[in-house]
Amino acid sequence: MPTVAAEPVIPAPILLLRRIGKSFGPVRALEDVSFDVRPGRVHGLVGENGAGKSTLVKIITGLEEADEGEVILAGRAVRFRTPIEARNHGIAAVYQDPKLFPHLSIAENIAMGAYPSGWFGTVDRRAMIDTAREHLARVGSDLDPKRTVAGLSVAEHQFVEIARALSSDVRVLILDEPTSALTPTEAERLFAVVRSLRDRGTAIILITHRLEEIEAMCDDVTVLRDRRHVATLPRAEVDRAKLVQLMVGRPLEALFARRERPTIGEDVLRVEHLSLDGVFDDVSFSVRAGEIVGMGGLVGAGRSEIAQTLFGITPPTAGRVVLKGVEVAPQSPKQMLARGLAYLPEDRDRDGLIMPETITHNITLPILDSLSHWTVVDRAGERRLAESASQTYRVLTPSVETIVSALSGGNRQKVAFAKWLATEPVALILDEPTHGIDIGSKAQVHAMVAQLADRGLAVLLISSDLPELLAMSDRILVIAEGALVAEFARDEATQESVMMAAARQRGGKR
Amino acid sequence: MSTSAKRQLPLWEMALVVAILAAGAWSSTLSPYYLSVDQLFGSTRAFIIPGLLALGLAVVVSLGEIDISLASIIAVGTVALSKLSAAGVPFAVAAPIVVAIGALCGAFNGLLVAKWRLPSLAVTLGTMGAFRGLAFIAGSEVGYTDFDDVYLWLGSDYVFGGVVPVSLILFALAAAGVWFLMHRTGYGRRCFSIGLNPDAAWFAGVDVVGVKIRAYALAGALAGAAALVWVGQYGSARGDNADGSILFVVTAVVLGGMDINGGRGTLSGVVLALFLLGTIRNGLGLANVGGPTQTVVLGGLLVAGVLRPAAAAAIARLSRPAKTREARAQGE
């Protein structure tokens, strides 16, 4: 697989992955991944959300065990059972959300698992602090090792994590989206450290969404897509467009049949200069009757946060929301439901449904008042409504008295749809409506969404599934780092253009 | 959780009925007078006051919250009633005022728990002390006993041939009302949904804060009503009224099948548990068992009540053949 690189001498690989495969139950998480990592080089690992990058890292560091294939470290096949074992063999990882103990000191965190012992097995605090200071200096940080971790910034967390990783002799350092929460200056400092480690002969695997970082940092790039290995190339041989194409280049599945030309009406949901301090900023768009507006972007870009602010979960700090021509200040879901806005949450099992309750009780919870006479719930009417809704949305269940947790993911999602649509909304926000459901239910959900729009509902569709987004949407908005960065008409949007916009790095502050 | 969760409770209620009959049978062996109608109705007076508290607490527990300040609200209520009595306010005016004071105390708990999202155990532990302290400060050292007979009627009189205590009728009405609220109205449904998953309930448009504050206010109002009964039963009002009775109340709610984590349970179970505990306490009294031992028995029953769901699950696992488990896996 490795091709000739531009540099004159290519060091022999230190880490070889050979045909790695992994399944979680019936779900294939990784299939046939092979590539080499060489000392003194930075190896980029890229792919869309869910492409299998994290699973691969977990296998290398011993958090998960591979079902197939081999990991070969310095010529010997290894199989780590714990991250500590991996670390003892010189493989360490730094994750995007640092896993430190907040109430312990920096020194204690760095020494974790290997406290220097003094007399009678007590911890030799002086030695521990000195070692910590030494490791921090190696990553160019002058943090006081005696400080507790709790007060540190995210960037400082990252440096402590890396210092901790270096506290053993690291031959392979894995960085999982290390800059996702850093400012550009902090990121630059981090990369200076990474470069110096590279120059001292450490092999580095850098997982990132940011194409700029690949260009600036990497010597080799491996692309994963749909849990498979697509290509490993020297960075010099791929430009940005090629990289994006490799990442998303699957054909549009036949499943995502595009809608007929819709008839689009008036603005139903209009958002003007909506902001939530520190989360998203100055977002303006509108969704018209009969229109499906797609919202694309990377995980963590702020799409769900925008949706939840519109729905009153976290009220905005600035901006206007106009629903059907009437200005609303979102304060609570109760109020927004009454105004005709419904929101299908991303985490269906946690926020969307009450799992230990029956289908009926779930569907009717938002509309109990309209089902009541003098505050008394009309239980027969409630059951009739649940039965007809289950039929309309094709919930496969023996009875509407079945507990929701006994249903499959796809059927749960249909119950969730039935629940929100029973509120008879004028605008509907769908947050990853097909996430984690089987392919058949997915097609049914798509058909349902199209039908709803055809009946005049204004739909805002948040999806990380690019083919789905392209096929379903009449218009696509792209959110990156809390800002609306691009808008595409139905005919201009391609997977490449959306991905490119989503992965662009803003120079500004966050 | 399987669909059988719903079927578990009637079974539990049956078990409570059996336990009540057994406790009654045991009591009747202790005293020849036990089975007389007078004795039976009269003995219910012993649990009317904690019973009213338990009805309110059941609503709070259905939310996944707790209120251990209710006994202290009784003291606030009795002392308030003594002030109104001393001021010559007619009972028909004084009674609603006391109930309203109880509701206010409860709403204050609710505000702290729901609006400021403080842990309810800590909040009501604090107000348990604060309310009782207020009652001591407002009330006199020796207690107030100059109640007019009208003030005592609710807690001490009997109707229907002098057999049925008036307070038992008050309790029956309150129990029916709370049962109806929890099992027939949208409000009750919202309470249980919050107890099962407060986030999902909030997403579904439930006014979680409002529902919780109202639940605490209701529990406080019922404690106010219990204060009226207290004055009738004991004819005196002092800061230490009903001190230490919260154990009985919590035990009744938990033993009655209310899940202490919220979301599940029935009011009929709570009422049955009250009868059971009342019968046991009455029996222990007839058998001359001392107060400390009674407390041990109550505490043991509370722990048993908390263990009940785990025990029920274990029994279900043992007694069910693997076949049904497969059936359940297929979605029952």
Automatic annotation (TrEMBL), chain B:
PANTHER family, per database record: ABC TRANSPORTER PERMEASE PROTEIN YPHD-RELATED-RELATED, AUTOINDUCER 2 IMPORT SYSTEM PERMEASE PROTEIN LSRD
Source organism: Siculibacillus lacustris
Transmembrane segments: 43-61, 93-114, 121-138, 158-182, 215-232, 244-260, 267-284, 296-318
Function, as annotated: Part of the ABC transporter complex LsrABCD involved in autoinducer 2 (AI-2) import. Probably responsible for the translocation of the substrate across the membrane.
Gene Ontology CC: plasma membrane
Any one GO MF annotation of this record: transmembrane transporter activity
InterPro entries the UniProt entry points to: ABC_transp_permease
Keywords: Cell inner membrane, Cell membrane, Membrane, Transmembrane, Transmembrane helix, Transport
Primary location class: membrane
Keyword DNA repair belongs to the record: no
Pfam families associated with the record: BPD_transp_2 (PF02653)
Assembly behavior: The complex is composed of two ATP-binding proteins (LsrA), two transmembrane proteins (LsrC and LsrD) and a solute-binding protein (LsrB).
Location relative to the cell: Cell membrane
Protein topology in the membrane: Multi-pass membrane protein
Annotated protein name in UniProt: Autoinducer 2 import system permease protein LsrD
